[in-house]
Write a structure and sequence with these properties.
This protein has 15 helices and 17 strands. It is α/β, with parallel strands linked by helices. The protein has two domains: 209 residues, P-loop containing nucleotide triphosphate hydrolases (Rossmann fold), CATH 3.40.50.300; 170 residues, 2-Layer Sandwich (Nucleotidyltransferase, domain 5).
Length: 438
C-alpha cells in the first residue's frame, strides 16, 4: 500500500472522531511507542512472563516506558492488564530518585496521565492513589527492610544496577509480590555486569527489551546528542551508557568484578582508623574533572573497608571541600588525605578555609596512576579489601582501568581517591590504631 493510500485510509477512519477521541488516540501509548517499549504479549494473565527487563542507554525512553506500564496496569487498560492492578510497588535507587524521576519527572507517572485520570500524589505518605482504588507505594533501595510486610500485585524497579543493596532489596521485593493471580514486575536500568542482571539474562522466564539512546534521538536535545553521543559512541563506556550493552571486564584491567564481589560486605565492623581521600580536579572550572572523594577504614585484623564514594562533579573548590569535610565529620574520620599534584597548596588551603581544625595529610604522586594503583589492586586479590554496599560508578572505573587508563580517556577521579585512601591505610607504616564502632 502506498503512503498516499495509507493516509487516505487513516483520514477516512478518523473522520467521525471527536476532538476528545483524537486526543485519546494520540495519547495511546501502544500506538505511539517504539517496538521495544511495547509490553510483551499484552501482559494478560495467560502470558508466561513474570519479569520484564528493559536495558537501555541514557535517555533511551526507559522511564517513560515504566511510567506508561504503571499507568496501564493501574487503570486496567486492555493492552496492559485484564483488570486494574490494585497494589503496586515503585522502587528507586533512593527515595529522592523515585520521587524526582519515577513519579514527578518529565517522563514520570504523573506526566503520562491525562489530567482527569491523574492519581493523587502524597509525598509525605510516599503514595499514589487512583480514583478506581489502585495504590502505588514508593520505596528506596537504600532501605531493604521497608519492603518487609507490604504486599503487591506488581512492581516497577528503576535503575536496579545502581542499587546499593541490590540483592537484599530484590529479595525483599520478591517476598512482597504475593497478591493477584500472576504478580509481575518491570525492571528498567542502564546495565552494569552485576550478578543479578546476569541471572535475569539467563532466565527464560525473563522477557528482555533493549533500547539505545540513538533510538530516542527525536526526543533529546541536539546539544546532548552532539556532546555526549558524539564523544562516547563506539567506546566501551558508550556501549554501556548509550547502547545499553552489558560490558564485561576489560581483559587488561587491574580489577575484576569477581574480585570486588568476593569482598562485598553489608556493613563494616569496628574500625581502628578511617580516612577520607580527596583527588581534586586540576581546574576550578565547573567543566573540570570530578573531585574524587572516597572514605575507607581499617579494622584491627588489617582488613580495609571502602565505606563511601562521595565523588562530586561540577563543584567549585569551596563546595567540594565542604563535601569532603562533611563526610569526614559524619564518619568521625582521623584525617583527610589530599593529593596536591593538581593545584598544589590550593587544595589543602581551601579545606582549611572550610574547617581549620581538620587534620589534612598532603600526598604527592611521584609515579603514574597505573603504578600507584597496582599494589592496591593486589590487596583486593589477596582478599584484604571489602566494599560496604555497592558503589557502581567507582567499581566501573576500577574494572575499566588498564595500562592506558580508562577506555573513555577520562580521568579516573574516583579510583584515584580510592588508591590514596587504601595506600594511606594499608601501605604506609607507623599507624596507631584506635577502635570505634560505626
Amino acid at each position: 500500500m502506498s503512503e498516499l493510500s495509507r493516509r487516505r485510509k487513516l483520514a477516512e477512519a478518523t473522520a467521525s472522531f471527536s476532538e476528545h477521541d483524537l486526543e485519546r488516540l494520540l495519547r495511546h501509548w501502544p500506538i505511539r511507542c517504539r517496538a521495544e517499549q511495547r509490553v510483551p504479549g499484552l501482559c494478560r494473565a495467560r502470558d508466561p512472563w513474570t519479569i520484564w527487563l528493559m536495558l537501555g542507554g541514557r535517555g533511551a525512553g526507559k522511564t517513560r516506558t515504566g511510567s506508561e506500564w504503571v499507568r496501564g496496569i493501574a487503570l486496567g487498560e486492555p493492552d496492559f492488564s485484564d483488570a486494574p492492578v490494585r497494589r503496586i510497588a515503585l522502587v528507586g535507587e533512593t527515595f529522592s530518585d523515585a520521587r524526582n524521576v519515577m513519579v514527578e519527572g518529565p517522563s514520570g507517572i504523573l506526566a503520562v496521565h491525562a489530567r482527569h485520570e491523574r492519581p493523587v500524589w502524597s509525598p509525605s505518605l510516599r503514595k499514589l492513589e487512583w480514583t478506581n482504588g489502585a495504590v502505588a507505594h514508593v520505596f528506596s533501595a537504600e532501605d531493604p527492610d521497608s519492603l518487609r510486610g507490604p504486599q503487591f500485585e506488581a512492581a516497577w524497579a528503576d535503575e536496579l544496577a545502581k542499587w546499593k543493596h541490590v540483592e537484599e532489596t530484590w529479595d525483599m521485593l520478591q517476598f512482597g509480590l504475593r497478591l493477584g493471580a500472576h504478580p509481575r514486575q518491570m525492571v528498567t536500568t542502564t546495565p552494569r555486569p552485576i550478578p543479578l542482571l546476569k541471572r535475569f539474562l539467563a532466565d527464560p522466564a525473563v522477557v528482555v527489551s533493549r533500547a539505545r539512546t540513538a533510538d530516542n534521538a527525536a526526543h533529546l536535545a541536539p546539544a546532548f546528542l552532539e556532546a555526549v553521543v558524539g564523544r562516547y559512541a563506539g567506546t566501551r563506556l558508550g556501549r554501556q551508557e548509550l547502547d545499553g550493552d552489558i560490558i564485561e571486564d576489560r581483559p587488561d584491567a587491574l580489577w575484576t568484578r569477581e574480585m570486588i564481589e568476593a569482598g562485598r560486605a553489608d556493613a563494616a565492623p569496628p574500625l581502628a582508623r578511617i580516612v577520607v581521600a580527596v583527588d581534586p580536579p586540576a581546574s576550578s572550572s565547573r567543566r573540570a574533572d570530578a573531585c574524587g572523594i572516597v572514605a575507607a577504614g581499617l579494622d584491627e585484623s588489617g582488613i580495609a573497608y571502602v565505606l563511601e564514594d562521595a565523588t562530586a562533579s561540577g563543584l567549585k573548590p569551596p563546595e567540594w571541600a565542604a563535601k569532603a569535610v562533611a563526610l569526614y565529620r559524619r564518619l568521625q574520620a582521623d584525617a583527610l588525605v589530599v593529593e596536591t599534584n593538581q593545584g598544589g597548596e590550593m587544595a589543602t588551603g581551601v579545606i582549611r578555609e572550610v574547617d581549620p581544625s581538620v587534620p589534612v595529610r598532603a600526598v604527592r604522586a611521584t609515579r603514574g596512576k597505573y603504578l600507584r594503583a597496582e599494589p592496591v589492586s593486589v590487596l583486593y586479590a589477596q582478599g584484604r579489601v571489602r566494599h560496604v554496599g555497592a558503589m557502581p560508578e567507582l567499581e566501573d572505573e576500577m574494572c575499566d582501568f588498564g595500562p592506558g587508563g580508562l577506555t573513555s580517556g577520562r580521568s579516573p577521579d574516583r579510583m584515584d581517591a580510592l588508591v590514596w585512601a587504601l595506600t594511606e591505610l594499608v601501605l604506609r607504616d607507623g599507624k596507631e590504631p584506635r577502635v570505634r564502632v560505626l
